[in-house]
Amino acid sequence: MNITLIRHTSVDVPPGVCCGQTDxxxxxxxxxxxADVRSRLQAIxxxxxxxxxxxxxxxxxxxxxxxxxxxxxxxxDVRLLELNFxxxxxQPFLSNPDPRLAEWYADYLHVPATxxxxxxxxYHRVAAFLDELRTLPYSHVVVxxxxxxxxxxxxxxxxxxxxxxxxxxxxxxxxxxxxx
Length: 180
What we know:
Layout: E1 2-7, H1 30-44, E2 53-56, H2 60-68, E3 75-76, H3 100-106, H4 119-134, E4 140-145, H5 147-156, E5 175-179
Parallel strand pairs: 1-4, 2-3, 2-4
Antiparallel strand pairs: 1-5
C-alpha cells in the first residue's frame, strides 16, 4: 500500500508558540498554499484516478486542506492529531516557566509534556492507525495531518530512526510518501 501524507499549511500563530492539539487558524495565505498542495497531489495521481481513501486529523487546519484538495469526506481520525502538549499548549516555549521543559528538551522521545504526551506515546497512536490501515484493501491512500504525524510515519516505515525524528520534519504543505 502506498500512503501519501500531507502536512497542513502554515498556521496563524506567533513563532515559538506551542500549538499541538489546539485548533488554531490558518494564515491568510491558505488559498495559495493549498493550491500548491493540490497541484502537487494532482501530479502524483490525476484527479480522474483519485486515491482509494482519504483520512484527516479532525483539527480544522487539516480538514480545510483535505476539503480544498477535493476530499471533503475524508475520514477524521483522532490518532492523526498532533502531539498533545497539555499545559504547554499556546504557551511560548522560550518563556514557559515549567521546570519540566528542560527534561523534555533533554529527552522529548520519552518525557511527556506536563499534562500531555511524549513523542513515543504519539508514535504508538500513529502506529496503531498505520497497523489498521495495513489490513484494508487499498492500494493508495492520502492522509492530511501534522508534522509530528508525518515524522512518526517515516519512523514506522523505517525511513528514519527515532533519534533523528525532527531532522525529517516536512515544511508546512510538505508531503511524505511511504509504502507498507
